[in-house]
Amino acid sequence: MSPTIDVQDLVVRYPRGEAVKGLSLTVEPGRCHALFGRNGAGKTSTLRALLGLVRPTSGQVKLFGLDVTQHEAEVKARVAWVPDAPGFHPWMTVAEVLGYAAALRTRWNLALQEHLLTRFELDLSAPTSALSKGQKTQLALVCAIAADPELLVLDEPTSGLDPLVRRQFLEAVIGVFQEGDPAKKTILVSTHLISEFEGVVDGFTVLSGGRAVLSTEADVARARYCRLRAWFDVDAPLGVPMKTVKPVSREGRMLEFIVDAETDAARGWLTAQGAVRIDASALSLEEIFLLAA
Amino acid sequence: MRWLVDYHSGVPVYLQLVQQAKSAMATGTLRDGDQLPSVRVLAEELKVNRNTVAKAWAELESEGVIENRQGSGCFVTGSKTPLRRAVRNERLAQGVDALIIQAHHLQVTDDDLRALLDEGLRRFHQTRRASGRGELT
Amino acid sequence: MTASRVSWWWLLSLLPVLAAGPTRALPAVLVLGAVVFAARASSPLALRLRKELRLAVLPGTLLLVCSGAGAWAEVLPASGAVAGLVETLPWVLSLVLPTAALLLPMVAEYERGTLTSFFLSPLGARAFAEKFALGASLVVLSWLQVSASDAPAPELWWLALGGHVLALATAPTWFFFARKEGTSLGLVTLTPFFVATPIGFLAGRGPVLAALALYGVVMLAVLPKAVRRGALGLPLDEALSLPGARWAARLAPPVISAELTVQRDVLVLALLGCVAFAGLFFNGAAQAAPMALFLLCALAASLSPALAFSESARLGTLEPLLVVLPRGAVFRLKALTSLGVTLLGCGVVPLALMGASELEGASVIAAFSWLVAMAFFWAVGLATSVHGAGVAFAMVSAWAAAFLGAFVQVLVFALVSLAVGSALGSGHSRDGAMAVVFFVSIGLAVLVAWRRFVHQPAAPARLAVLAAGLSVVVAAAVGALSALTSPAS
C-alpha cells in the first residue's frame, strides 16, 4: 500500500522568497504526523502544497500514491482540512454551512455530523457571524470529519482557543475521526501547542528555514534524548565524554546535561565519577523541538 | 483504575500502558474477568493516539493476559498463567535495582539494607493481618 | 509601495493641475508642499503625513485624475458617445470619489486595527485633524478642477457639487464616530441619505434626490462589509437581500445558491442604478440618465468577479472550496455564476428598462454593444481580481479596491474607445473593428484569469502585462486594417 503522504524534494517559492527548500516527508496510512516549527519555518506552505492551494515550484507531492496536481479530483475527495481561522459566509446558519459543505462532497456521514453537533452543542439555526472563534473551529471540524476523509490536515487548529474547546477538539479528533477505520485514518497536524498533541502524534518533523532538521518517531525521540542531573559530594567533574546536545551546565556540585542516545553510558559514567544522586528525565516533544528548531 | 502517561519517563507510551495493566493485575486492581476500557474511551481520556492504546492491548493479548471478545471489549484472563509471576518479578526487580542504587548513594551498607527490608516486610504483614486482607495496591 | 514611489504618484497626479492655471494651482501647491515635506523631512509630523499620503494614494490620485478628466475632452479629438462619456465622467464620478478619498484611508486603518492607537494616543485629535485636512484639501482641489469645465447638463453640476459637499459634511462625523465598531460608521454614512431623501421628494428637486440616491447606493457598495453591518442596529445585509435573489437562492443547489448570495450585492447595485436612472429620467434629466445607468452597470459588472473571487478569499471561504474541488471546477463555478448575474443584472434588466422608457439614448447604445461592453468590464474585472494562490487580498479590502479598480476601467475604456474610434473614423467598419477588439480583449482577459487561477504561474504579473500588450497589438492591427479597407469619409 502506498504511503498516504509522499513528498519528495518539495520547493515552494513565492515572489518574495523560498518558503520550502527541498522537503521530503512520508507518512504511512493510519498515522498521526506532526509538523513542528517556528513561525515562518515553512509549515503552512508545506500544508498548502499538499492541499493543492499552492503549486509546488519543484518536487513531487503525492497523496494516496496520486500526484496532487494531476489527480486533483480523486485526491481532494479523500482529504479534509481545518484551517487556523476558518471562514464561513457570514449570512449562512450552521445548518446551511453543513448543507453547503455536504453539497461539495461525494461522501457525507450524517450520523457523524449529528453526533459531533451534539458533542459540541452547536445551534443549527445560529448564523456563523454570531459564532465564537472556538465554535467556528468546531464547525470546521464537523465539516471536515463528516466528509469521511482519509487524510485530515490540521493547520494550527487549536491556537487561540480556550482550554475547554481545545480539549473537546482533540477528543473529537481522537475519538470520532479515527473511529471509522483507524488503519486508514491519517492525520497531519501543524501546531505550536506541542504538549497538547504530545500523546497523539506517532511521528513528527521539525522544520526550520524551509528544511526538515529532524524527522523521527515520537517514542524513539523521547527514548533518545534524556536530561541528566547529578549531584556530587565535591565539585562536579569537567567535561562529559558522551554525546550531548546542549552545552553542559555546571553549578558547583551539580552537573546537568542532555545526552543523545547514550543514557545508560552516561549514568554509568556519573556513578563512576561518584555522583551521590542522579535524576533522569526524558525530554518532552516540546523540549526536543526547542533543541532542534 | 487510573491510567497515567508520563512523557518524561523515556518509556514508549504503549509500553507504559502495558506495564500499568500488568502491575494492576499483579496487585489485584484488575482481576480475572474485569473489562479494560475501550480503545476509544482510553485514548480520548489520556489524549493519546488510538493506535497507541490499540498497540498496548494487542501486546497484552499476544501475551495471553487479556482476551479480545469480538463486539464486547477486552477482558482480563491471565491471572492463572505463569506469566504473572514473571511479570511481578520483572517489575519488582526494577524497584530493587533503584533501591540498591539509592542505598549506595546514601552510603547504607548491604546489611543495613537487608535489615530495613525485613523490618518493612514484618510491618506490612502485621497490618495485613489486622485489616483482614491486602489493602495496598 | 515604497515611500518614494508614493510621492511620485502624487506628483504625477498633481502635474496637470499645476499647469491648469492660478485658481486651481493654489490648493495644488498646498498638497504638493505636503508631499514634498513628507518625503524630505524627518519629523514626527512628516512621518504621520507620509502614512496618510500612503493610505490615500489610491483614492486620492484617482480623484485628482478623474476630476481633471474634463480637460482631456478638450485636448483629445472628440467624437460621438465616447466623447460625451469622457466629458460626463468627472461630473458623475464626483459623486463617489470625494467620499472615497476621505473615507478609504479611514477604513484601511479600521480594517488593519491601527485605528485603536489613535484613540489611545494623547495626540489622537491632532492626528485626526491632519487626516481630515489632507482629505479636505483633496476634495476642494477636486471641486475646483471639476467646476473649471462646463457641465454637460445642469443636473450634473448639482450632482457633482452634492458629491463634494456630502463628502466634506460627513467626513468629520466619521472621525468622531469611528470607534472600534463599525456600527456608528454605518449610521453616519446613511444619515444624510435618510434625512435628505424626504426633503428631496417634498421640494421636488430631482437632482438632489438623484444625487442622494446615488450617494446612498455607492456608500452601501463601497464600504466594506464590516462597516456596513449593524448600521442602525439592523443587519443591513439581510435587509438588502433581494426577494428575487433569495428565491433563486432557495431553489438552486447549495453551491450555486452560496455563489448567488455572494453576488447579491451586484444585483443590488444594478437595481439601484435603475432607480437612479428612473429618478433622473422623470425629473427631466433624460440626457444624463442612460450615461448614469451605463456607469453604474459597468461598475457592477466589474465588481461581480471581484466579489466572486476576492471577497470569498477575504471571507476565508475560497480555500475550503479549493481543498475539496479541483481548481478548474472552482474557476468555472465562480466565473459562470458571476457572468450570469452580470448579464442579467447589468444587461437584461437595464436594457428592458430603457426599452420601456422609450428613451432616445437607448437606441444610441444598441443592446448588443451594451451587452458586449458589460462582458468586457466583467472579463477585465475577472483578470484583475483573480489571484493564483488564493491568498488574502493585500489591499485595503477587496470591495473598496475592486470598486476603485472599476473606476479606472471605465476611464481606460473611455480612452481606448476614444483613441480607436478616432483612428478608424466613422461608419460600420469602425463598429465591427471595435467589436473584434472587444471580443479579443474579453477572450484574453478570461484566458489570463484562467491561467492565473488554475495554473498558478510563478509570475502572474508578467503574464498580465503580456496579455495587455498583446491586446494592444491586436487593437492596433485591427485599427490599421479597417483604416486601409475603408477610408474615413
Structural notes for this entry:
The complex is a heterotrimer of chains A (293), B (137) and C (489). In chain A, 44% of the residues are buried. Chain A has ten helices and 14 strands. The model of chain A has no long low-confidence stretch (mean pLDDT 88). Chain A folds into two domains: 5-209, P-loop containing nucleotide triphosphate hydrolases (Rossmann fold); 225-292, Alpha-Beta Plaits, CATH 3.30.70. The longest helix of chain A has 15 residues, at 163-177. The two termini of chain A are 32 Å apart. A six-stranded mixed β-sheet of chain A has the order 6-7-8-3-9-10, with helices on both faces. A four-stranded antiparallel β-sheet of chain A has the order 2-1-4-5. Chain A has a four-stranded antiparallel β-sheet with strand order 12-13-11-14. In chain A, helix 5 packs parallel to helix 6. With 293 residues, chain A is of the alpha/beta class. Helix content of chain A is 32%, strand content 30%. Chain B has two domains: 13-80, Arc Repressor Mutant, subunit A (Orthogonal Bundle), CATH 1.10.10.10; 83-131. In chain B, strands 1-2 form a two-stranded antiparallel ribbon. The longest helix of chain B has 23 residues, at 83-105. The mean pLDDT of chain B is 81. In chain C, 83% of the residues lie in helices and 0% in strands. Chain C is built from 24 helices and no strands. Chain C has helices spanning 3-18, 22-40, 44-67, 69-75, 80-93, 97-112, 115-120, 124-147, 154-177, 183-203, 206-222, 225-228, 236-240, 243-251, 254-262, 264-282, 288-315, 318-324, 327-356, 360-364, 367-385, 398-424, 428-455, 460-485. The longest helix of chain C is centred in the last third of the chain and has 30 residues, at 327-356. Chain C is globular and about 55 Å long. The termini of chain C are far apart. The model of chain C is unreliable at 179-186, 224-245 and 388-402 (pLDDT under 50). Chains in contact: A-B, A-C. At the A-C interface, helix 2, strand 6 and helix 3 of A face helix 15, helix 18 and helix 19 of C.
